[in-house]
Amino acid sequence: MLSRVARPVATAAGLGRSFSGSSQCNAKVAVLGASGGIGQPLSLLLKNSPLVGELSLYDIAHTPGVAADLSHIETRAKVTGYLGAEQLPAALKGCEMVVMPAGVPRKPGMTRDDLFTTNASVVADLTEACARHCPEAMICVISNPVNSTIPITTEVFKKLGVYNPNKIFGVSTLDIVRANTFVAELKGLDPARVSVPVIGGHAGKTIIPLISQCNPKVEIPQDKLQALTERIQEAGTEVVKAKAGAGSATLSMAYAGARFAFSLLDAMNGKEGVVECAFVRSEETESPYFSTPLLLGKNGIEKNLGLGKLSAFEEKLVAEAMSELKASIKKGEDFVKNRK
Ligand code: NAD
Ligand code: LMR
Question: What integer pLDDT is reported at residue 13 of this predicted model?
């Protein structure tokens, strides 16, 4: 007789690290931009998690097919596809978390800021719908330029009178994932056991890896530290160049987005001691938004853990990031203020 083989219920731990998803809950999660390069593998990872009870897939193209495909997977999350703006309210109704990889990606030669022209209104429209239809949800924005799209999200929520700074996150987890991987490669360590905080923003020199706070502690000579830091800062461009016009990081971003979503869902579910870095409203520096390690809880950010002790090299990186960060933030804020 055929015995039923125990299925590997995917947990984030099953993805290689112990950032879990091992508990079970019934969260309703929406993915906005679900048919895209990030949206599809991210939706697959979410469908495979015991933390997700309902998965709401929204896009302006192809969601019926993506939803039909994912719905055949033998996990309990109920999958529904929603197509086009008139179906967006239904997609968002009752959601506890929204993950947003909607918008255009970079091509070689472009900066993330070059995406502003298209993505600012995509993010403003989608977050306005979130503010109207699921104002209590955790909003996790992946769409670039993150240094501007988070201020846009905040201003939209403020305009509609439902702003809660503890529930709006710019997903910068890919920078941490990359820093862990590159440090592990350099030092011959298991990347799943390496943890590097990455603070600041999510573009070029605003990405600030804190190698001095790496766990386990690593010694890296200054010339190699400089090169490692630059590689982490330019890792997105490395992928854009390698893809040669076919977009930017999608698979590693889906992994990183799932890691962040599972951490937040775990914390919402009562797990204690969950810490992730994300780009959020912040009073830790002179920049009004800044990524630092955050203690997550049932209601989002429980405590901002701040920058910690920096090396002189890292202090200089923070100082050098400030003017670009503040300009990108202002650009996002002004966009919403000047919008009809
Ligand atoms: P993609 O073009 O493959 O997919 C984007 C999806 O968004 C498409 O399916 C498209 O139909 C959809 N979309 C466009 N406008 C929409 C709207 N108004 N409503 C709903 N859906 C809409 O792009 P991708 O590779 O998945 O990248 C998506 C975004 O994520 C880009 O802006 C990219 O720069 C960003 N990104 C961020 C990080 C990060 O670390 N935060 C990492 C990688 C990519
Ligand atoms: C990344 O870091 O990979 C993303 O922000 C995409 C990009 O444009 O580099």
Answer: 36
Counting ligand 2 atoms within 8 A of each CB, the residue from 113, 116, 141, 144 with the most, and so the one to mutate, is 144
By annotation, the residues acting in catalysis are 175, 202
The rounded Å distance from CA 251 to ligand 1 centre is: 12
Alpha carbon distance 63, 40 (integer Å): 10
All structural domains of the chain, each given as residue ranges with its CATH number in brackets, are 27-171 (3.40.50.720), 173-330 (3.90.110.10)
Kindly report, residue by residue over 17-57, the tens digit of the pLDDT.
544 455 678 999 999 999 999 999 999 999 999 999 999 99
Segments in the chain below pLDDT 70: 1-23
Q: Which two tokens stand for residue 191?
A: 């990347």
If we measure between CA atoms, which residue out of 101, 103, 57, 53 comes closest to residue 78?
Answer: 53
**Residues 6+ positions from 162 with CB-CB distance below 8 Å:** 131, 135
Q: What pLDDT, on a 0 to 100 scale, did the predictor assign at position 25?
A: 80
CB–CB of 141/171 below 8 Å? yes
Closest by CA to 100, choosing from 49, 34, 151, 168, is: 34
DSSP string, 71-139: HTSSSS-EEEEEESGGGHHHHHTT-SEEEE--SPPP-TT--GGGGHHHHHHHHHHHHHHHHHH-TTSEE
**pLDDT value, residue 31:** 99
20: left (phi over 0), alpha (psi -120 to 50) or beta: left
The pLDDT value recorded for residue 10 is: 37
Instruction: Give the nearest ligand 1 atom to 247 CA.
Output: 25
Distance, CA of 260 to CA of 170 (rounded, Å) = 10
Q: What is the pLDDT of residue 1?
A: 35
- The protein residue with its alpha carbon nearest to ligand 2, atom 8, reads 106
Q: φ, ψ for residue 217 (rounded to 5)?
A: -65, 135
Report the pLDDT value the prediction gives residue 340, as an integer from 0 to 100.
78
Which of 253, 255, 279, 328 has most ligand 2 atoms within 8 Å of its beta carbon, as the pocket-test mutant?
253
